[in-house]
Design brief:
Largest sheet: none
Radius of gyration: 23 Å
Order of helices and strands: HHHHHHHHHHHHHHHHHHHHHH
Number of helices: 22
Number of strands: 0
Bound molecules: phenylalanine
Shape: globular
Structural class: mainly alpha
Strand content: under 5%
Distance between the termini: 48 Å
């Protein structure tokens, strides 16, 4: 498909809602509120916003610019922008090769071989390998994201049919274990969820993702507001708000920064080629910069609202807060059921419906990454591409379906991972392992390489030209002029002093600061001691 025949978003609102739909997902609901609560509340929110501004936003701008400039899938987009062999890519390949040898040497053959293969890919395909790497990350994430999506659908059904009526966490745990220990039910729900995500993108960009996002995203916010209203008007609710938001700077530690940065990548769906893919359907007169700011604003708001929906209720009903599956599937059902008025099932139903929507729009974006690649590479019909990805990811996701509590159903896989990778710690199941590998390794690595690519290979100058299109003069407003109130002052503007503009600040960030921060965090996440 060439540039001119490529589909476009129908409207700016549609694009912003679709990309916000990708950003707002389980991370906003089950992770952000909790890590905020335990890392100093409002103080952590500030740290998080700083991470978003220093790393999240700059990388999102890179991805959108790469996507729109080329109008291609992530692999071909990188390929189109690297005009000749890049020394940087060769250096990266060499570094990977060295680490491959070191890893093999120190008794981690699986890691060694993986690093070696990536080194070869980078050497051969240069930065196009980053595109492929991100798409693989996206599909791996989809394979387990859709398993959790399946649980959420099942919980929505259970809630509305009044079968979630338990008063304590033990009771809710029993329901949960009963459900996840029945692989058949889990598999059916996983396949249904993935089918719904596929259905959202079946009709393409404008009639598929965009139309669905325009319907579902407002619904999500309405449902969220309804649950918040119920939650904050319960007696005892202020304790929850206090836990969630009251700032406590003494609780900010080095690991809070780490957590904030990691989360900013995950929640903005960066490093998975999503913004490249969505950006490739963008029109030239769209303002990338303000769209990205809007997405970040909406995503942060959703995360804050989720905290306000959850914690006041949890505290008011006398439970302990938590994160992840145990919060959603154990604490919350009991919380809703204890609500006064006897219609706890209704509130639980609304909440799980909201969560279904949040998860679906995220899954659709992951799905689309694989689909665009097939559409472009093999000139395939969209319907066929959707079915192929469905079969591939659905099939692979079965491994996550049967390994939720432990490895017992797929002991052979555990043996295989242990014998080839020799990991120092091995999580309790395949599903968690996959989550760690993708969130801690693949996403930051892809984000880092995307920033380096834009800053040093494609070049800030060319990328800036792309960002300026449709941005009026926002990007080149002199920040100093703007902040000092000298905007429009003729004498000041004609003086030859150059000042800091959004564009120059962005260039500095993606060339130096952003890669450095991401690198440190990546090393820390994979267990290298970097001094903090
Ligand atoms: N951003 C989503 C969330 O916050 C997760 C996600 C990650 C979605 C990667 C798509 C891709 O839950």
């Amino acid at each position: 498909m060439n540039k001119s025949s490529r589909e476009n978003w129908g409207s700016r609102l549609g694009f912003v809602l679709a990309i916000a739909g990708s950003a707002i997902g389980l991370g906003n609901v089950w992770k952000f509120p909790y890590i905020t609560g335990i890392n100093g509340g409002g103080a952590f929110v500030l740290v998080y916003l700083l991470c978003v501004m220093l790393c999240g936003l700059p990388i999102m701008l890179c991805e959108l610019a790469i996507g729109r400039h080329t109008g291609k899938n992530p692999v071909d987009a990188f390929k189109a922008l690297q005009l000749r062999r890049s020394r940087l890519a060769d250096i990266i390949a060499a570094l990977l090769l060295v680490s491959a040898i070191l890893l093999g040497w120190t008794g981690h053959p699986g890691f060694g071989v993986t690093a070696g293969l990536i080194a070869l890919a980078v050497f051969r395909w240069q930065f196009a390998a980053v595109g492929a790497f991100s798409i693989i990350a996206a599909l791996l994430i989809l394979s387990y994201y859709s398993v959790i999506g399946g649980w959420i659908i099942e919980y929505t059904r259970l809630a509305f049919s009044g079968r979630l009526n338990v008063n304590d966490v033990e009771g809710a745990s029993q329901i949960f274990s009963g459900f996840i220990s029945s692989p058949r039910r889990v598999i059916i729900c996983h396949l249904i969820f993935l089918g719904l995500a596929g259905a959202m993108i079946w009709a393409g960009i404008r009639n598929g993702i965009e139309r669905w996002s325009k319907i579902l995203m407002p619904m999500l916010f309405v449902l969220l507001l309804a649950v918040i209203l119920r939650s904050v008007t319960l007696p005892g609710a202020p304790d929850g708000i206090e836990f969630f938001l009251s700032p406590d700077f003494s609780k900010l530690t080095a690991s809070s920064w780490l957590e904030a940065l990691g989360h900013s990548f995950y929640t903005l769906s960066l490093g998975m080629a999503i913004s490249i893919t969505y950006g490739s359907y963008l029109k030239k007169d769209e303002n990338i910069f303000t769209s990205a700011l809007m997405v970040i604003g909406v995503d942060t708001m959703a995360a804050l609202l989720a905290g306000l929906a959850i914690f006041p209720a949890v505290f008011a009903m006398g439970f302990e807060p938590g994160a992840g599956p145990s919060l959603i599937f154990k604490v919350l059902p009991a919380t809703f059921n204890r609500m006064p008025g006897g219609i706890g099932w209704f509130w639980a139903g609304l909440f799980f419906l909201m969560l279904t929507i949040a998860a679906l729009t995220s899954a659709a974006s992951l799905f689309e990454c694989g689909v665009t690649l097939l559409l472009d590479k093999f000139k395939m019909r969209r319907a066929l591409a959707v079915v192929l990805i469905y079969v591939l990811v659905g099939g692979f996701g079965l491994l996550s379906c049967v390994s939720i509590v432990d490895w017992s159903n797929i002991e052979w896989l555990r043996q295989l991972v242990v014998s080839t990778f020799n990991p120092s710690v091995m999580p309790g199941d395949w599903f968690t392992l996959l989550d760690r590998v993708t969130s801690n390794w693949m996403i930051p690595l892809a984000g880092l390489l995307t920033a380096l690519f834009t800053g040093w290979v494609w070049s800030v100058k060319r990328a800036a030209r792309e960002l300026r299109q449709g941005a009026r003069n926002i990007c080149d407003n002199n920040l100093i002029t703007f902040l000092s109130g000298l905007n429009g002052d003729k004498l000041y503007l004609t003086s030859r002093n150059h000042g800091l503009t959004v564009m120059s600040a962005w260039g500095i960030l993606i060339r130096y600061l952003t890669p450095l921060i991401v690198l440190l965090v990546f090393l820390k996440a994979i267990g290298v001691n970097v001094g903090f």
